[in-house]
Amino acid sequence: MSTFLWGAATSPHQTEGNNVNSDWWELENTEPSFLPERSGDALDSYHRYREEMALLAEAGLNAYRFGIEWARIEPEPGRFSTAALAHYRRMIDTAVELGLTPVVTLHHFSNPRWFAADGAWGRADAVDRFTRYVDRATSILDGVEWVCTINEPNMVALMDSVRRLLSGPDGFAALAQGLPAPDEKIGTILVEAHQAAGRILRERTDAAVGWTIAQQAFQAAAPEHEGVLRQTNWVWEDLYLEGARGDDFIGSQSYTSQLVGADGPIPHPPSPDNTITGWAYRPDALGIAVRHAWEVTGGVPVLVTENGIATDDDERRIAYTGEALRHLSEAMADGVDVRGYLHWSAVDNYEWGHWGPTFGLIAVDRGTFVRTPKPSLAWLGAVARSGRP
Ligand code: BGC
Predict the structure, then answer these.
(1) Which atom belonging to ligand 1 lies closest to the Cα atom of 352?
(2) How does pLDDT run across 352-367, given as a tens digit for each residue?
(3) How far is the CA of 61 from the centre of ligand 1 (A)?
(4) Which of 1, 28, 141, 253 has minimal Cβ neighbours within 10 Å of its Cβ?
């Protein structure tokens, strides 16, 4: 039995800084931008990645999930940066040197500008473009045991729906009425991209391959909504979970649980208990999510690749995580094969348009870039040292 992974996660765009070739950078810096805040220097993790890795390792964690940035590796179509690839290889080597098992994500929301400008996932050759990048990325993955192809493809498909809504008349007013569903056509293309990437990775590397799904832990608001719940689950996550059948693992990512009524997902009602992101405080979501992933994939081993809470109150983070782990351990006792728990996030990072929601185990001063571990990091490290959840 391989070692249970205990770690934390980040993504490149949210931490590195100056990811100027990416579509997110463009969205943030085009005037006027609908995003209130910019990533800017972010946490300068492009240069300071060793600092967060060292803090995680010192605390007692044994794994670190981070991503490599397509926009840096392939700044122009078909032109690859050897220096960027070497940079990410150094990150992999640093993690290993510090005793952290690297879990490497190949795509975490941001695209090269040229890919986005050219039709993104809707273009006929999108899958070929992505696999050309994956193919090149395998050159630095020697010895890496865990690779996630695409992070939250269901949210990528959702962003496509949002983009379309915003480009139409009264887009902002329409968006204020609630989020549209993830675009199913784009979702199907993403499944194809994931499976094609998986074939390349299996041929060229020894890594366990999977992708990571945003799970809403949907529940029917009343028994008569079971049918809508099934349809909602399909468009929001099951399409992607079914696309993972036969994979080496499924990455489960959950933060909250949401009710489904006659018209689909019901927005979280305002409550003083809601987290900074406005989500209901539901540590039980993790148990619901991993059981659902296990069931829909037909028994693919689960790696919790994200779980956490946006809060300024670190004691609340510890309480939330402790309870989430209790639900995880109950699911494991019921037979769900769980291979690890990676907390989101290692650091307070750029939350896609905002700096306000703080998910980190480590605080970062964005003026000096000094990293300060929060008590929750030592707490999670102690849990990790004690063994299984
Ligand atoms: C994403 C992260 C994000 C987190 C909290 C997930 O949707 O993978 O990039 O920061 O959840 O919202």
Answers:
(1) 10
(2) 999 999 999 999 999 9
(3) 21
(4) 1
